[in-house]
Write a structure and sequence with these properties.
The chain is 43% helix and 15% strand. By secondary structure, the chain is α/β, with parallel strands linked by helices. Strand 8 and strand 9 form a beta hairpin. Helix 2 packs across helix 10. The structure holds the ligand Nc1nc2c(c(=O)[nH]1)N[C@@H](CN(C=O)c1ccc(C(=O)N[C@@H](CCC(=O)O)C(=O)O)cc1)CN2.
Length: 282
């Protein structure tokens, strides 16, 4: 089965639309700030998806486009201005940031109550503890939303996550553990990767290498969730999984685009509405 993210996103959007309407009836306009440093293709794709989704939901978005060589202090200054702007309720800062930026400084600068993609260590700790009063990061949450929407059993299942970033792999593993999955985290140094992945009930791929996973890594019992967003040699978006090579073989698979990304940008607005309500004392 093809697991279409757009179907999940449209279902979630019905609920978000109602909440946005309730807020607007009270005179509150939820607003998102997107902070982008440079012009990374994956970030631009996320930005396009988020802006389209915001239009459908009637939510305002302001993009802060910053130069690739911006200094850490200037980026902190931008974040502080957003923290202090009462008309902005949530911040999405694209990551990874350029190497010269002191990421620790940045993480702590984001006000936890506006930190809707879970960058501040206070929200990261809440994810570790299974405490739902903070914000879980959008892409990992999107993966869980897709599995739940399509009634794919997580409890007790053998879930293999390839990737150990703080944006996807690590927090996703915690969210899955909180759902009682048996989680194996793999990465570039994992030995016998194919043997590990072939045994997975659910294989989640977030390694940032176009079409890396082919039929040698999967079996007919595998549900494949492709988190990757890459640009191929002719300029088309593609995932970390070679979709055409594995689609007939596996049990289920998400496409790219129209898979995890479409849900990620919807979770973003679910979190924004939650942040807006928290800031307004609801
Ligand atoms: N702070 C973060 N920065 C970045 C993240 C992240 O999760 N948090 N992720 C990547 C980008 N990313 C997923 O990993 C991503 C890319 C694209 C989309 C999206 O909305 N895609 C749509 C639209 C596609 C298009 O029109 O180009 C889709 O797939 O249908 C969401 C997430 C980088 N930075």
């Amino acid at each position: 089965m093809i697991l279409y993210g757009r179907e999940v996103a449209d279902k979630m959007s019905e609920e978000i639309l109602n909440e946005v309407k309730e807020l607007k009836d009270k005179g509150i306009e939820p607003k998102l700030a997107i902070v982008r440093v440079g012009r990374n293709e994956s970030d631009l794709s996320y930005e396009r998806g988020a802006i389209k989704r915001a239009e459908k939901l009637g939510i305002k978005v302001e993009v802060f486009e910053l130069q690739e060589d911006i200094k850490t202090d200037d980026l902190v200054g931008c974040i502080e201005r957003i923290n202090n702007d009462k008309l902005i309720h949530g911040i999405l800062l694209f990551r990874p940031l350029p190497k010269h930026i002191d990421e620790n400084h940045i993480k702590n600068a984001i006000n936890p109550i506006k930190d809707i993609d879970c960058i501040n260590p206070i929200n990261v700790a809440k994810v570790m503890e299974g405490d739902k009063t903070g914000f879980a990061p959008c892409t990992p949450s999107a993966v869980v939303e897709i599995l739940k929407h399509y009634n794919i059993d997580i409890k007790g299942k053998n879930v293999v996550v390839i990737g150990r970033s703080m944006v996807v792999g690590k927090p996703l593993s915690m969210l899955l553990l909180n759902e009682d999955a048996t989680v194996t985290i793999c990465h570039s140094k994992t030995q016998n990767l194919k043997e590990v992945t072939k045994n997975a009930d659910i294989l989640i791929v977030a390694i940032g290498r176009a079409k890396f996973i082919n039929r040698e890594y999967v079996s007919n019992k595998t549900t494949v969730i492709d988190v990757g967003i890459n640009v191929d040699s002719v300029g088309n978006l593609c995932g970390d999984v070679d979709f055409d090579d594995v689609k007939e073989l596996v049990k289920d698979i998400t496409p790219v685009p129209g898979g995890v990304g479409a849900v990620t940008n919807t979770v973003l607005f679910k979190n924004l509405v939650k942040a807006c309500k928290m800031q307004m004392g609801y």
